[in-house]
Amino acid sequence: MEKVLISTRDLSKIYHMGEVSVEALRDATLDIYEGEFVVILGPSGSGKSTLLNIIGGMDTPTHGKVFFRGQELGDLDDNGLTRYRRENIGFIFQFYNLLPNLTARENVELVTDMSSDPLDVMEVLDKVGLKERADHFPSQLSGGEQQRVAVARAVAKNPEVLLCDEPTGALDNITGRVVLKVLKEINRSLGKTVLVITHNAAIAEMANRVLYLSNGRIASIRTIENPIDPERIEW
Amino acid sequence: MKKLMLMTLRDIKSNKGQYIAIIMVVVVGITMYNAISMSFYNLNSATENYYEEYRLPHLFVRLNNAPESVVGIIGRTDGVSSAQGRLVLDVPMEIPGYEGRVHARIVSVPRSNDGALNKLHLEEGRYVSGDHRDGALVEKLFMEFHRLDIGSSIYPIINGKRVELKVSGKAISPEYIYAVPSAQDMMPDNERFTILYLEHSFVQQLTGYDGLVNEVVLQLEDAGKAKEVKKKLEDRLKHNGLISVTERKDEVSYAMMDTELNALQSMGFAYPAVFLLIGSIVIYMLLIRLVDNQRRQIGVLMALGFTKGAILFHYIGYALLVGFVGSVLGSLAGVRLAEVLTRYYLTFFNIPILQVKTYADVVVLGILMSVVFCGVAGFNAAKRVLRILPAEAMRPVAPIEGKKWWGERILPFLAGIRISWRLTFRNMWRNKKRTVFTVVSIAMTVGLMISIMTMLDSMDYLFDKAFGDALSYDYKVAFTGSVHRDVVKDLGEFREVTYAEPMAEYPVRLMNGWRKENTMVTGLVQGSRVYKLFDMKGNRVEVPREGILLTEGLAKSLGVKRGDNITIEALNKPGIERRIAVKGIVEQYLGGSAFMEVGALDAVLGEGSTINAALVNLRYNGEEIAGDIEGMPYVQSVKEPDDMVKQYNEYMGLIYAYIGVIVVLSCIMGFAIIYNTTTISIMERRRELASLRIMGFTNNQVAELIFNENTAVSAMGLIIGMPLGVFMAAQILKLMPEDMISLPLVIFPKTYVLAAATVALFVILAQLANMRRISRMDLVEVMKSRE
């Protein structure tokens, strides 16, 4: 947990909506270490997603810098950012965003086909507990299962970081817990850094560190010495 | 309601490209409809008015020189309202500064033009009366070709004497809208044929035919009784040297104009209908997508209390708007194009009183058709609004059911192809309806293009065939009338003539029951060395000793096959009718469409051992000898087969213009369709595509998915469109004026290649035009919104 993987310096993001400017993020400075499990908490509109999107190379800050292993993202052009996302980032969304036309396995293969150092597709599906359902289409899977396919898809290309935007937001607590367990397992056994955005404070207890965002600022950072097992999370 | 309208306009504004593309398809269809229909009406009313105002005769009586008293006899016949005698004779003519010989037809006209039948329209100069009695009125297009002016000298050779005449005016006659000497000549030849209108008594004086006429033209009290009066005249004049009585509909110029108008009329509906049909398919697809995308909004509107009817109408409104705007623009363009096309016609037909009018009923009907077509498409797409329940609509749509398509189940290897292609096929399968519509639209576009380009192929083939194998004579010598077969021997006397063979051509009517066709029968010698016939398999065929050979087109329109009997009636000699056996079917190329042995033809229609033409080959230095032959007393014209091509191409200029217009318009349409399909498949899957981008797919990789799909759909459209094009071409060929030429249906591989290349180009262009949609996709925005 010593090596810094991602660092942000004085990140600000201002959205101009007509005559109104909204400062979604203000002076966010932060280091994230390799293999860390970080939960970012905050009410809606606090800047969580903006921070995540900027870290993921999907959005650019108005001020400030983001470094990934010392490489400043602002120096990358569109192709560079695409490559960065392809090689280093695995995204998981609230609404899964699987391709409805592809089976679970094919959704994962879609990503492994283009990455340089992918994991074995079936092994990853096994890890998320969906080996048996590999040839099902998204419409034949439950929400939790779809989200686990999405996790598998994000993991299979063997990225450094998983960025999860409300991964349990659309799930009930039982299926949600299964997804969280899978994320934790991937964090532990594969050593992937995981960032989870949520407004569900209960989830924070499974993290190594918790960031509180409020009004676009990082209000506090809390380190948890003994993260609890996701099984024991209640909400 | 006003707000809904505002929404419509804003939606359209934010998807400009797509709406412009659809509107273009409608514009194209309506432009064509207006242009072709209006040029039809313009021409039709112009010719009708012209015939009426300038008193085109209903019947033409041709006689061996008869005393002028015959005019009185005819004039007093029941049903005849007026009759006018005249002398008509074909003579060679010299034009200063022009090397070739010209074939002039002298037509005598009464002293006064007012009230005359076949009244002349003078573009310039003076009528041939009074001081100008010894002047000549010359046909307009000929004067323009040779740059003759009022006062220029021309030198017709009458009875072997070179006579100098001064041009006193530039004229046109309703009898020669389409100025050809006879049905034998397919195309007007403004270089070598013209009509001279000379005062009647002056012609009598020049020719020495004092007190004689050889034609009487007449108008009837009731045009519907032409047949009866014709019969009556035939009986009455039997002993007055009658040659023939012809109705105006059988006169060459009238018949050609009629065919032309018919073709125009049927084209005026067929093509625009195809365009509108495609346009409505595209609108249908677009609206389906729109309604699906705006489900949530529809739910909100319903929750707010808008009635389903109002919402339904809101969506149909898009289609109506497209139909209306497209048809209004199309009408504007169509009116302009109609003017251009109509004026273009004027270079082929001599019509003085052409009024280029805008026909309000055509415009209104066009707009109506367009609005109805679009409205029906719009309704069919928008009616799915009715199935939406507000509460459901506001929830996100259930994920689309993913499925393997049957192809993957049947053909296991398809499951092993690259994922991006697997996705492509499954997407096509997922949107079956849309895929089918797109394929059909592209197929129709390809069909249009191929059918039209086939015309060019067929013509090329015809010329190649004609000059490659079939027609190898250097010149065709036409005699002024029937001459004895031995005249061919005279031609052989010329040292430079290496070969000469007799030939005859007579205008006839072929009949099988109620089916009738007017055509030329060509008489050839057996074993002809310079005019070869081939059957449909390409084997050489000889003219039979007895019986007749027909081209395929002619046999079809008569409904006969080998072994059937048909009736042949001479058009140049009334009363001669024979039954004759069809001995075979031959390929068509330039020239005739019915063939007999020259002796057998003479036995049926001739005067005993007579012919009226000869085919010759020359040693070299052909031009000069041809001139000499043309100078022989009984020779009417000497023509190279190339002249036919030249004339044909000139006439085809008109067809080329249409071909050009249709090709350009189909291209616009083809592009519009493919552009729309591309746009829709991007818009519909923005979320999917955005996820791919976020996962690290490059813009190009995402574009490839769309491109694959378009390629696959277009390829299918091509595969179906090609045979469709062949089928459509066959239909168009049926519309072509049959008497003139029946084109074989020939399609060169290059046409298919060209069609495929065009479609490929459109796919690429549509893709490029849409690349921005992919590269400018705001990933964050797309992922945030849950449609």
Task: Report what the structure shows.
The complex is a heterodimer of chains A (235) and B (787). Chain A is an alpha/beta fold. In chain A, 28% of the residues lie in helices and 29% in strands. Chain A is built from six helices and ten strands; from the N terminus they run E-E-E-H-E-E-H-E-H-H-H-E-H-E-E-E. In chain A, a hairpin with a 2-residue loop joins strand 9 and strand 10. The longest helix of chain A is centred in the last third of the chain and has 17 residues, at 173-189. Chain B has 787 residues and is α+β, with helices and mostly antiparallel strands. Among the domains of chain B are: 51-253, no CATH class; 431-466 and 644-787, no CATH class; 475-639, no CATH class. In chain B, 53% of the residues lie in helices and 20% in strands. In chain B, the strands form four sheets. Chain B has a six-stranded mixed beta barrel. Chain B has a six-stranded mixed barrel with strand order 14-15-21-18-20-19. A four-stranded antiparallel beta sheet of chain B has the order 2-11-1-12, with helices on one face. In chain B, strand 7 and strand 8 (161-162) form a beta hairpin. Classes of the chains: A alpha/beta (235), B alpha+beta (787). Chain A binds chain B through residues 49, 53, 56, 58-59, 78-79, 82-83, 85-87, 89, 91, 93, 95, 97-103, 106, 109-111, 113-115, 137-139, 153-154, 157, and chain B through 396, 398-403, 418-419, 422-423, 426-427, 430, 687-688, 691-699, 701, 775, 779-780, 783-784, 786.
